[in-house]
Amino acid sequence: MKNTSNKRLTKKRQLMIKKLGYLQIGLLVLMFAVAGMMFLKRSGAYTPIGGLTATCSNFTVTKTTVQTGEVFGSSVSMKNNGSGNGSGAFSPNVGTALFDLGGKFTMTGGGITKNYAVNETANFSLTLTAPSVPGSYQFQPIMGVVYSGYYNDPCPAITIKVVAPTTPTPPTPTPPAPTPPAPKPRPRTIPATPAPVADTQKPTAPTDFSGNIDNTSGLINLSWTASTDNIAVSGYQIERSLNQTEWSVLAANVTEVQYQDATADFLTLYYYRISAVDAAGNISDFATTEVSSRDFVANVSPKDGATLTSEDKTVTVIIPPDAVKVSLFCSVTSDDSQLAPSIKGYTILAGPYLLNCRNEAGDVVNNFDKPINMTANVSASSRSKVAKVAYFGQKDNKWIEIKGVKRDKKSGIDNAVLGSYTKFVIMGKTKKTSIWLVLLSIAMVIAGIALVLAALARWKLKHNSDSTNDNYRRQNMGG
Question: Are the C-beta atoms of residues 441 and 448 closer than 8 Å to each other?
Answer without folding.
Answer: no
